[in-house]
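B., you asked whether I could sanity-check this one before it goes into the benchmark set. Here's the sequence:
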Amino acid sequence: MKQIISLFENLLYVKIIPSDPKTIPFYERYGFKQYDNYSALVLKQFS
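And here's what the prediction gave me:
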């Protein structure tokens, strides 16, 4: 997962939409955040 995220390190946001809610904790371990009333998880990249 870290290798995949590194491919997008120049982007401000990376959004994913998990098809299975059971996978949300996996993505949260890598810094993705889930927001209220929003189906995607977001990873903010700030340099």
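One thing to flag: Strands lie at 13-16, 33-34, 41-44. Otherwise nothing jumped out at me.
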